[in-house]
Every structure is written in structure tokens, then in C-alpha cells.
Design a protein that fits this description.
about 575 residues; alpha/beta; DNA polymerase, domain 1; Beta Polymerase, domain 2; Beta Polymerase, domain 3; 4 domains; five-stranded mixed sheet; 23 helices; 17 strands; globular; binds zinc ion
């Protein structure tokens, strides 16, 4: 006997039909098939049961012609219409649908113009730089295709916080607009602002879960529905990320606490609860005797019931926060609106995209009191580093921008290379003309540990250096940190009054939380910078602040939270 097809298998075939029809430029039909595919994915009943009861037409979107096809498929396990469509198609072309960002229309163009008909030929064309030449594609989509291919090859990889967060906030915002949702929050590692994220977890408080689920699974960015249940649904969205939504009817605080994690934090909290005769889970805090609910509405209530302070999600890693919370001694970590200026930015003088004035105006829009323009120095040929004359010329323009744009102070500066021998890329008489000097390593990453440490401390000893840029050089998933004795580096930075940078570029996030905490405990000071190369990436500052929060940094530890008039005290060369 024929084994019955699963709902997901039927849906898959309908999705494929939709994709093929769309590649053939057929109008309307693709969306009709897609709608039915989604309805079938969202069914709580076995589609074979519906067929037996003659109820296929009850499935949203099913008309006469699709009903016939479904019947054929469910009784014979085959569909002549589908086989015919597939026959005219290169064998592996539908695999391309797995690539985030590629849909039937784009696949059709790729096939017609470049003969691409499989993941293999797609990769070859992208690597040869052929895709960027196509209309509507460009360099960015080519690199996204390559990234997508990597994702497929390596199984699902974790995403950078900087990639996941904007998407998640967008979805959160939409859910917040639902009248049925009385509370909405991102949960999980994303709420804790971990530097990489597996799935996006979102919690909604509502008494009308089906409505919330229906809205969620029908959002335009949803590419596939993995599961739709009464309290939990999972979807894959356009960029390849999985989003899990849970609807909670009551005691939202307990659920939020539970699903925010981390696991290690929750285990430790649970142990403390047990010692106090309590039980804690996603439904609330209960007295063990009699199972009476004592807390659950808010997270504050939950932690209070266990006898501890409620702490920011960024601290919940069982890294000392529980002990501190029990003693009422949590640090008052920096908040997201306390940054007063950015001290590491680039312009179109080197590898940035915007002019000085554009960067300054964008910084002003963020409400900043100051910004430093710190383009690359001459040893950075790839980034078109400035030589001395170019820098002197730029200084004039920066000062002009400072005069021209009112309401924000513009500092002159440079991101000066630390050379292999620990010398800086500009002589002292040039460096002393600048307000802010960021010293960074951009070459010879593989120096042995002792040499690298010496190279860095040597540079930090130069009296003109204010900030040590992206201190470990790591690039998440791309480059390991330098082999360096960080404790010696912190020591040198402290002794020489150099601030350690927390670089907010999504791939850098450098220093990381653990290192920042370590450096703070030794007495280091910090600046949180974006290293922005465009006006829009000034917004990355939120990522850097989240790393600082995870590293227990307080406002007073971060020099660019201080108002403009206090900067001359904090940086040697800054004069107002
Ligand atoms: Zn740099
Ligand atoms: Zn930079």
C-alpha cells in the first residue's frame, strides 16, 4: 500500500509548482498555489483525513482545480501536472530556492543570462564576479549569495547580533501594533544581546493566540512555516533566519524570565529557589508546599520572590550576577542613551562612503555633542590611507566643518597604524596636531605573542595615543584574535591613560564582554565607537553598548559618555 503523504510533503510540492510557474512568468497562479501550501503547512489535522472526509475544499485557498490535484496526489502519490512542469526544468534548479534572497524571478534571470542551474554553477558565477554585472543584482547581492551558499553548506550557522537585531525589532514592532497583544518581547540570546544568535525568539502575551499566530505566519517576510500550533509557531523568514513565536496567556514575566535564559543563569536561579522552598518555571514562582503561585506577572516580581534584584538581560550568564543580585550589589550598567559622541569614524577621504560634513550632520542627528574624524594613515594602501600632506589638508576641512555645522564639536583625528615594530605610522609632530588618535593594528596579525604584546604596548606608550582601536583584531567567523597578552596590554593602557575601544562593527564587537569585564576590574577606561564607514553605520553604537553592558561597564567607565566640556580632562590633546 502507498504510504500516506505528510502535510509538509504536499505543501512542498505546491511551493515548487508556485516557484516554477513564477519562473515561467505565469500570473496569479503562483500566489494561489503558495497560499494553499501555507494553509496546508498550518493545518492541525492530517490532510489525508480531510481528503477522506471530502473536506479538502475547507482548506483556505483551495478551489476546484487545486482540489482535483490534491486528490490525485493523495491517492496516487503522484501529480501529472507537476511531473510535466518538472520535465522542462534543469534538474537542480529548485535547489536555488534555498539560497536566502533568491526567488523564482531572480533565478530565472540567473538561468537565462548566465546559464545558472544549480548551487554549484551559482557559486562558480558568484566567485567569478559575474553576478554583480547583472541588472538588479550588483555587488551587494553577489556577496549575499556567497554568504547564503556558505550558510547552506555549513548547515544553519549562527547570525551576527548586528544582522539579527534589526530584523527582530521590526517583527517585534509589528506584533506590538496588534490589538490582541497586551505585551511583546524579544527573548532568548537575542534579548541578552549575545554577539551571535541562533534563532529569534519572541514572546507575546495574549488571550487570543490563534489571531496572533495567524498574523505572525502571514507576515510578508515569512518564507516557510515550519510549525503552527496553538501556543508556538516557527517560521523561516526571507533572510534565512528562523523566528519562533510563543503566545502566553498569563504570568508573562515568568515566561519572559524563563525564555530569556541563559540556561546556566536559570539553573542557578532555580537552585536558589529550591533552597528557599520555592519552585520556578515558565509559569511562575510557586511555594513548593501547596503549589501556590507567589509571582509571575513581571520579571521584577519573579526575582523579588526569590530574594534577589532583577537584572538586565545582558547580565544573565551566571557570571557573578546572581551573587551580586542576592547582595543587592548589581552594577548600574551603562544604558543605551548615554553615549555623547563617536570617536572613531571614517570618511570618503579613505575607505568611507560619506563626506566629513555628512558624517558630522548624521552624528548631530543622533543627538551627539561631538564626533572625531579618524581616517586611516598612510600604511593602509587598501583603505587609501592618508599621507602627511593629505592629513594636514583634511585637518583644515575638519576644522571648517566644525565651524560650519553648529551644535556639535568636530575633532580632528587619525586611526594611525601600529607598524610591525610598534612604531606609529605618523611622526609625533603630526600626531600632536590631532585632537584624537586611535592606534590600531591592520597588518601582520600573526606576530608571535611576545612580539605582538611588545608591539602594542610600545605604541600605547606614545604620549599622543588616546585610544587603542579594536584591541584583539578578531572578526567573528573570519579572523582569530591576535596572539597577545591582554593583561599586559590593559596594564599599559591604564598606565598611559589610553582608553580601550569597544568597536561596534557587527563583525568586530571588539573588545568582547569577557575582556571588557577583565579590563574594567584592572581599572581600564573605555570608549565605545562605531568605526563607521557610512552615516547609517553610526547606528551600530547600540551593538557596542550592548557589549559594554554584557561586560558590566558603567557609565563612568566609558569616556564618551562624558559631556564635551569634560573631555579635555580625559584626553590629553583635546582642546575646546
Ligand atoms: Zn581599524
Ligand atoms: Zn577604523
Amino acid at each position: 500500500m502507498l504510504s500516506a503523504m505528510k502535510n509538509s510533503e504536499v505543501a512542498e510540492i505546491l511551493y515548487n509548482i508556485a516557484d516554477i510557474l513564477e519562473m515561467q512568468d505565469v500570473a496569479f497562479k503562483p500566489s494561489a498555489y503558495r497560499k494553499v501550501a501555507r494553509s496546508i503547512e498550518a493545518l492541525s489535522e492530517d490532510i489525508n483525513e480531510l481528503a477522506k472526509k471530502g473536506k479538502l475544499k475547507d482548506i483556505a485557498g483551495v478551489g476546484e482545480s487545486i482540489e482535483k490535484k490534491l486528490q490525485e496526489l493523495l491517492t496516487t502519490g503522484k501529480l501529472a501536472y507537476y511531473d510535466k512542469l518538472m520535465k522542462g526544468l534543469p534538474k537542480h534548479i529548485l535547489d536555488l530556492m534555498e539560497v536566502p534572497g533568491l526567488g523564482p524571478k531572480k533565478i530565472k534571470v540567473l538561468n537565462e543570462k548566465l546559464g545558472i542551474d544549480s548551487l554549484k554553477s551559482l557559486e562558480a558565477a558568484a566567485k567569478a564576479g559575474k553576478i554583480r554585472e547583472l541588472e538588479h543584482f550588483g555587488e551587494k547581492s553577489e556577496s549575499e549569495i556567497l554568504k547564503g551558499l556558505e550558510l547552506i553548506k555549513g548547515g544553519r550557522q549562527r547570525m551576527l547580533l548586528g544582522e539579527a537585531l534589526p530584523t527582530a525589532l521590526e517583527i517585534e514592532k509589528k506584533l506590538k501594533k496588534l490589538p490582541e497583544a497586551s505585551a511583546v518581547s524579544i527573548a532568548g540570546s537575542l534579548r541578552r544581546r549575545k554577539e551571535t544568535i541562533g534563532d529569534i525568539d519572541i514572546l507575546v502575551a495574549s488571550k487570543k493566540a490563534p489571531k496572533v499566530m495567524a498574523f505572525f505566519t502571514k507576515m510578508p517576510e515569512v518564507k516557510r512555516i515550519l510549525a503552527q500550533g496553538p501556543t508556538k509557531s516557527s517560521v523561516i523568514i526571507e533572510n534565512g533566519m528562523q523566528v519562533d513565536l510563543r503566545v502566553i496567556e498569563k504570568n508573562f514575566g515568568a515566561a519572559l524570565q524563563y525564555f530569556t535564559g541563559s540556561k546556566e543563569h536559570n539553573v542557578a536561579v532555580r537552585d536558589i529557589a529550591i533552597k528557599k522552598g520555592l519552585k520556578i518555571n515558565e509559569y511562575g514562582v510557586f511555594k513548593r508546599k501547596g503549589n501556590r503561585l507567589v509571582a509571575g506577572k513581571t520579571e521584577q516580581e519573579v526575582y523579588k520572590a526569590i530574594g534577589m534584584q532583577c537584572m538586565a538581560p545582558e547580565l544573565r550568564e551566571n557570571a557573578g550576577e546572581i551573587e551580586a543580585a542576592l547582595k543587592n550589589k548589581l552594577p548600574k550598567i551603562i544604558s543605551y542613551n548615554e553615549i555623547k559622541g563617536d570617536l572613531h569614524t571614517h570618511t570618503n577621504y579613505t575607505d568611507g562612503k560619506n563626506t566629513i560634513v555628512e558624517m558630522v550632520q548624521a552624528a548631530k542627528k543622533l543627538g551627539y555633542e561631538y564626533i572625531a574624524i579618524t581616517d586611516h594613515s598612510r600604511s593602509e594602501p587598501i583603505a587609501h590611507g592618508l599621507d602627511e600632506d593629505q592629513l594636514l589638508f583634511q585637518i583644515k576641512e575638519v576644522k571648517e566643518a566644525d565651524r560650519k555645522v553648529k551644535g556639535i564639536k568636530v575633532f580632528t583625528g587619525s586611526e594611525v597604524d601600529i607598524k610591525g615594530n610598534g612604531e606609529l605610522d605618523f611622526p609625533d609632530e603630526i600626531l600632536k596636531k590631532l585632537d584624537i588618535v586611535v592606534a590600531s593594528i591592520h597588518s601582520r596579525f600573526k606576530s608571535p605573542k611576545e612580539l605582538m604584546t611588545k608591539r602594542i604596548t610600545n605604541a600605547l606608550e606614545n604620549e599622543h595615543v588616546d585610544i587603542f582601536g579594536h584591541p584583539t583584531g578578531r572578526m567573528i567567523y573570519m579572523r582569530e584574535p591576535y596572539n597577545v597578552d591582554l593583561k599586559k596590554v590593559y596594564r599599559s593602557a591604564i598606565d598611559n591613560k589610553v582608553a580601550m575601544e569597544i568597536n561596534s562593527q557587527p563583525k568586530r564587537m571588539d573588545l568582547n564582554d569577557v575582556h571588557a569585564k577583565e579590563a574594567k576590574e584592572m581599572g581600564a577606561k573605555f570608549v565605545i565607537n562605531t568605526d563607521a564607514h557610512t552615516t547609517s553605520s553610526l547606528g551600530f553604537i547600540q551593538l557596542g553598548v550592548s557589549m559594554a553592558r554584557r561586560g558590566w561597564l558603567e557609565k563612568k567607565d566609558v569616556l564618551n559618555t562624558y559631556p564635551l566640556k569634560q573631555l579635555p580632562k580625559l584626553f590629553r590633546k583635546v582642546r575646546l
